[in-house]
Amino acid sequence: MPDANLLGTEGKGFVHLMEHLPLERISIAVAAIAAARAAYEWTREYVFERKAFGKPVGDLQNTRFVLAEMLTEIEVTQSHIDRCVLALNAGELTAVDAAKAKWWASELQKRVVDRCVQLHGGYGFMMEYPIGRAFVDSRVQTLYGGTTEVMKEIIGRDIAARPA
């Protein structure tokens, strides 16, 4: 292979890959929180259009509680991700902080989308609705870029390496 085709330094491919993992993981976290927010918005609109027991599903206390929980978790997670993006841009995002953001945001996406499917009822499982497609799409977020368990191992190793 010609030297012109070499990317990076010969023999350092794994090192180069590892150097870019924080960027990959924060990118996954950003996509996860955006998807969670989109699912929440579709659902918020839907529950105030859909009627059960003679009134919009969104007027039921349980539905309002679920919406409140999801919105709070989304906003708190968004703040953390925003901080991580600023750290990335400053060249200060650690692999551990990227792992935390990726783990939390991808698992949050999965939880939020699952709750949204529940609030959509049977329509939530139909691929004709965006929420049905989001349900299928959300599952892979906790896998690529490193599984949730790998993220926890990275974080755990960092905790174990610090003096008490």
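The record above closes out task 2.4. Task 2.5 opens with a second protein, given below.
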Amino acid sequence: MTAAEAAQAIKDGLSTNSILSSDNILLCPMADGGEGSMGVMERAFHRKDVQYEKIFIESVNHLGSPILAPVLMYKTDGSTITAFIEMASVCGLNMIPRDKRNLLRATTYGLGSVMRSVIESHGARRIVMAIGGSGTNDGGFGMLAALGWSFSNSSPFRNKNIPTFISGIDSASDRSVQSVCPHLKETEILVASDVTSPLLGPSGATAVYGPQKGCKRQDIPLFENALENWIKVIGHPDFPGAGAAGGTGYALKAALGAQFVPGWRFFASALGLEQEIASADLVITGEGRFDRSSLSGKLPSGIAEMCRQYGKPLWVVTGQNKITEAEYLRLGISKVFELSSLALPEEHPLQDAPAIIRRIIAAARYL
């Protein structure tokens, strides 16, 4: 389900109780930088009456197939042309079927080409980028190559001259920035991300997120060695958040000077979520898998923080729960509804998720 679909299912469940009026149930679908972030921005624009244009830029996904990448163009401070880019819509994990994923050939080149286009062809001097949900692990090598950076001893991928991980950062020895995209230095880049992982190591980009992107266990050392070389080429030490989007976070900050902001906080601010929580009687949020990573700077922990601040009860609806009752109660979460365990024998936890949510929320005691 999308965030909007899950929110509507929760509202439908609450609305079956005649005590509650649907007018008193506010839907505020959220994102934290991954898939769905662009939809949240559009809802925020509509709510605040911000004028914007949705354009589509010719690019490629992370395996080199042509795509039309959506971008939101709007003005900040009255005059600065700003582009909002959702990385998941350019080289997102869910764009490629599981059996077709090949992390060794995945590249952020398409993301860089979109950035270059909004700067050169559309006059953007500010880029806001949500970098969750990526299907890449190239350290941002392809992105920088598309922006005009060149690296000695690295050969471009023969297919359409798109550089990929395996032909790039493992053999690069130094860099040249002579032909970098004009006006790139004048462009402010703001990155919305909730990942705090470094680039390297057991808690880094490859070890934590690589397997879900199709990285075979035996290939992890290959990526680690190449990304270690990448740090030498760029010349900036590893840092928390560098592992975001398969190391794209590293290139954005180390090479392009991007500023980072917690994804959940950015979108919460855009939607005025704190004010809505302050005036609510009950807050309900959702998470696909509720585990320890959900508590380390991600959306559920951010919402729990605001609920504690204003003394509001919080429920969590999740597909799978890995947090103990004692742990979530300490965070101020009153209830956790796990769809996989609450599904009836005839219900499929994934296919019937909206119906399960409606049923369990309608039966919950909340007054």
